[in-house]
Amino acid sequence: MILRATRAYYVTVYYLSWFFFGLVGLGLNIACIFLLLLPHRHARGIGVRAAIRLLFDLWLKWFHACGVVRVRWHGFDEPLNPGIVYVANHPMLIDATLLLARLPDAVCIFKPSLMHNPALGPAAIMAEYVSGDAGVDVIRAAAEKVAAGCSLLIFPEGTRTAPGQSPAPFKPGFALIAAQAKAPVQLIVIRSTPELTARGRPWWKVPSIMPARVEINLDRRWEHQEGRHASLLTAEVQRRLSEVLPTSPA
Questions:
Q1: 3-state SS of 75-133?
Q2: CATH number of the domain where residue 168 is located
Q3: Directed axis angle between helix 230-244 and helix 173-181, to 10°?
Q4: Could you tell me how far CA 51 lies from the centroid of its own chain?
Q5: Does residue 75 lie within any of the structural domains?
Q6: Position 249 in a domain
Q7: Four-residue CA torsion sign, 171, 174, 180, 183
Q8: pLDDT tens across 155-210, in order?
Q9: Please, what is the end-to-end C-alpha distance for the chain in angstroms?
Q10: CA-to-CA separations, 16 to 59, 63, 168, 177, 183, in angstroms, rounded
């Protein structure tokens, strides 16, 4: 009886969490639609990014308060620096949400189709997230953001890793961006309950293990080296991830 009641609590709070997320996200995007109509919208980008960080942090605090998802941060005791390319493995749908709650003045790379989505696009446009159809244009735009002092969050795999599988080969875009911006690359390693918004599993399906657990580790950092080839840096970062991340789920 107690187990059933506990399970019912976690299921209810899990769905309630997503309801709040959708409701707040809708409100943010409606507000950003009106901001898009105002002049000098680029001057408001930093404010919108700060609002997104605050809202994601509140969602993270909600997770902890109700106990449905427990996130442990390692190496995040000191404030993080902007102007860095942050790369992470990608086991969950909510990876970006959790990381954007901590990274300073961060932008990420959106698919062009998502920028035209009325439920996501207005906030992404106002936050000046990077988007484009051509790889060269995206790399140049992202490098300009990092050189100007923004953090960049990027998942070099390009897709989520299925539970129990090794991360897919990294794409070198992050290394090219870091080279153009003359910026460091910081690796973040994420481990999570295998069923929590994992690839091949609907986001709305409640994990069988609750509370779900996530560990986020600030790992190795590579300083900018003039003349270093992007393929070498890409291989080094992927090799480091393979060393610290077992193929079996946490």
A1: CCCCCCCCCCEEEECCCCCCHHHHHHCCCCCEEEECCHHHHCCCCCHHHHHHCCCECCC
A2: 3.40.1130
A3: 120
A4: 16
A5: yes
A6: no
A7: negative
A8: 999 888 887 778 889 999 999 999 999 999 999 999 999 889 988 888 889 998 89
A9: 29
A10: 11, 11, 33, 38, 40
What is the pTM for the complete model shown? 0.92
Query: What is the spatial distance between Cα 189 and Cα 245, in angstroms, rounded to a whole number?
Result: 7
Full residue range of the structural domain in which residue 194 is found: 2-244
Q: How far apart are CA 200 and CA 139, in angstroms?
A: 29
Pairing relation of β-strands 212-222 and 185-192?
A: antiparallel
Counting the structural domains of the chain, the total is: 1
Q: What is the pLDDT of residues 90-132, one digit of tens each?
A: 999 999 999 999 999 999 998 887 777 777 889 999 999 998 7
- Which residues are paired to 189 by β-bridges? 217
pLDDT for 249 beyond 50 = no
Structure tokens at 249: 């789920």
* Per-chain mean pLDDT for the chain: 90
